[in-house]
Specification:
This protein has a single domain (2-205), classed as Metallo-beta-lactamase, Chain A. Helix 3 (147-156) packs across helix 5. By secondary structure, the protein is α/β, with parallel strands linked by helices. The longest helix is centred in the N-terminal third of the chain and has 10 residues, at 36-45. It has a 6-stranded mixed β-sheet. Strands 7-8-9-10-13-14 form a 6-stranded mixed β-sheet. The chain is globular, with a radius of gyration of 17 Å. The protein contains 7 helices and 14 strands.
Length: 230
């Protein structure tokens, strides 16, 4: 398998390139508009055909590259069925799969950070978007966030994956690149709660500033970044 983890310094966003083989099909997860040329160059260097660009949810801290990648590479663009963006060519749902050649990413609906948050699972790893972070979890105080829903997404879905499953989030603000379900169960402070109500109280008590680009990024991302790119 070809796997690349790419980093956007301005928004601390991770973008993931996944393909089965050199010369085969590829997909990009959570691409950032300003890095579009870098993605296209990497795809070309590896002699890949980009067939799909996908966002885990409507991001509030950066503008997506879904629209520009579609225009430049003719790839399909995809978001979950709960996403109120009509600019994508594919809306997926839990139980379906994202496929490139013989690689199949299982789709989990993991709301809580937003109501349109999804995670993607391969046999040895999971792409958790902003739902499960390294030693943290995504905030739940805007974009129809819901700490109770996030608790269910975490404890009834993601944390039930095998302990050795690698965790690749959409962001990290301290330079950490990967974790595992085992590590997060034991060392993530937000997961050390006795029950759902304790998690709700914990998340509801956070006092966080809005993301700096939220007023720009959210409406732009509902158009797959094309309005921002114009």
């Amino acid at each position: 398998m070809i796997f690349r983890q790419l980093y956007d310094h301005e928004s601390s966003t991770y973008t993931y390139l996944v393909a089965e083989r050199i010369g085969g099909e590829a997909l990009l997860i959570d691409p950032v508009l300003g890095n579009t040329d870098q993605y296209v160059q990497l795809v070309n260097d590896l002699e890949l055909k980009l067939v799909l660009a996908v966002d885990t949810h409507i991001h509030a801290d950066h503008v997506t590259a879904l629209g520009r990648l579609r225009d430049q590479t003719n790839c399909a663009s995809a978001m979950g069925e709960m996403t109120n963006a009509d600019c994508v060519s594919i809306h997926f749902r839990e139980g379906e799969r994202l496929c490139v050649d013989n690689l199949h990413l299982e789709i989990l609906y993991t709301p809580g950070h937003t109501d349109d948050s999804y995670s993607f699972v391969l046999p040895d790893r999971v792409f958790t978007g902003d739902t499960l972070l390294i030693r943290g979890t995504g905030r739940t105080d805007f974009q129809n966030g819901d700490p109770a829903a996030q608790y269910d997404s975490l404890f009834n879905k993601l944390l039930k994956l095998p302990d050795q499953t690698l965790v690749y989030p959409a962001h990290d603000y301290q330079g950490r690149t990967v974790s595992s379900i085992w590590e997060e169960k034991r060392h993530n402070p937000r997961l050390q709660v006795p029950d759902k109500q304790a998690y709700i109280d914990l998340m509801s008590g956070l006092e966080l500033d809005n993301p700096r680009l939220m007023d720009i990024a959210v409406p732009a991302n509902r158009s797959c970044g094309l309005k921002a790119a114009a």
